[in-house]
Design a protein that fits this description.
Number of strands: 14
Number of helices: 14
Helix content: 40-55%
Largest sheet: 12 strands, mixed
Strand content: 15-25%
Shape: elongated
Radius of gyration: 34 Å
Distance between the termini: 34 Å
Order of helices and strands: HHEEHEEEEHEHEHEEHEHEEHEHHHHH
């Protein structure tokens, strides 16, 4: 129940020596401010790094061939091999919990020899022979037209989806590429769509300088037969690709007579494993932020406890009079704890507000100056604020507990004798 006299007394006690009160409150203010700032900085770093993953299916592994390093079953080491469409079928049939398996072929290269012609314009671009599922594994925005589909795959249609950078390099400004033809290593392909990659981590220009054509048309046009250059394999949600990738490797090794212990023959990049490492890193950073912020906060709480001990000492005679007039120990204890919690919460909330203003300023500066590599949108969520408030309340109770216990242990007669 609100007691106006009690709160007037609390304010009077804390303002009687305002310099001392401000210096004490600064410790709590600084502890909460540092905690908020560390958590926001960690979140900004986390957001920036995760932007590099974009909306990519993180439960994905990319797999390619490498030189065989162990002789096996009469086959010499040092030989090269190629994946086949039969490998794709075997993996799909024998490995459970796979969501997508996309065989891929590739030619050309960004900044390599010119391999694409459109009229008088030429350029060097990565050209991929793909299946429609690749757009779910490497998400992209279709800015015009459409992506390849299974009608294109089954009909071996010579159609292409080009990146915005390809459009800029081969077409005049404002020209619509849909329905026009480009020549890829002497073979005509009709443009059916343009895209812009969502994931621009790394070399953003290169990610927009790619051309996607149906896998079957690619194989036919460039004499690849049933060869597969590499694969993008995505597992179902709830089943980490890391947990089943060895089953995939075993199938490939069996099909190509590779020693079971040859770890270098199958090249791969486990996106799930990398993403999990990032998650673990930021969990550790969050723990460190809480640890450092809490240590700074504890120093402030010790200051509050000390100041409350001094306040109790200064009010010894007042406490004796209250006890003599019938005030219960719980009343005295409640008064001291209320003062401690009030001082802690007010200073802590000031730290939270100041931290929020600083975070807003940082975000404003980032928006004004443009994106910063590996750092984006530093922020703290409502859960952090709730945790901070809980810490403040508990800290205030802790800071006032010992002074309150000292106050109620005073005998009224001894307190009245105190000068």
């Amino acid at each position: 129940m609100f007691n106006k006299d009690r709160w007037n007394e609390i304010i009077e006690v804390l303002s009687s020596n305002w310099v001392r009160t401000l210096l004490t409150a600064f410790g709590v203010f600084w502890g909460i401010f540092i905690l908020i700032l560390l958590l926001a900085a960690g979140k900004g770093l986390e957001n920036g790094i995760k932007q590099g993953f974009g909306d990519a299916a993180t439960n994905t592994m990319f797999m390619w061939t490498r030189t065989i390093t162990k002789s096996y079953d009469g086959m010499a080491k040092g030989r090269r091999y190629s994946y086949r469409l039969s490998d794709v079928s075997d993996i799909r049939e024998n490995v459970p919990n796979l969501r997508f398996i996309s065989p891929r072929n590739q030619l050309g290269g960004f900044r390599g020899a010119n391999n694409v012609i459109r009229g008088l314009n030429v350029g060097a671009y990565n050209v991929y022979g793909d299946y429609p599922e690749i757009i779910k594994q490497e998400p992209m925005d279709i800015s015009s037209g459409r992506f390849i589909n299974y009608a294109d795959i089954n009909g071996k249609r010579k159609v292409a989806v080009i990146g915005e950078a390809v459009k800029t390099g081969l077409y005049e400004k404002g020209e619509n590429p849909i329905g026009t033809y480009i020549k890829i290593q002497g073979v005509n392909f009709m443009v059916i769509g343009t895209y812009k990659k969502k994931n621009t981590g790394g070399d953003g220009e290169e990610s927009q300088s790619q051309i996607f054509v149906p896998f079957t048309a690619f194989s036919q046009a460039f004499n690849r037969g049933d060869k597969v250059g590499w694969m993008a394999i995505t597992a179902n949600d709830g089943t980490p690709i890391t947990a089943i990738k060895n089953q995939i490797f075993d199938i490939v090794k069996k099909n190509h007579k590779i020693h079971p212990d040859d770890r270098r023959a199958v090249g791969h990049f486990d996106l799930y494993e990398e993403f999990s490492r990032v998650e673990s890193l930021f969990t550790a950073l969050k723990v460190i932020a809480y640890f450092v912020g809490t240590l700074v906060l504890i120093s402030g709480i010790i200051g509050v406890s000390n100041i409350m001990l001094i306040v109790v000492k200064e009010r010894t005679k007042e406490i004796g009079i209250r006890r003599a007039l019938g005030a219960s120990p719980n009343t005295i204890r409640g008064q001291i704890l209320t003062e401690s919690v009030f001082l802690t919460i007010i200073s802590g909330m000031a730290g939270i507000v100041f931290g929020a203003v600083c975070i807003y300023g940082i975000n404003y500066a980032i928006d004004a100056s443009g994106p910063i590599d590996m750092f984006a949108n530093p922020s703290v969520n409502l859960g952090v604020i709730t945790t901070a408030l809980t810490i403040l309340i508990l800290s205030g109770l802790f800071a006032g507990f010992i002074p309150a216990q000292n106050a109620i242990r005073l005998k009224p007669v001894d307190a009245l004798r105190n000068e």
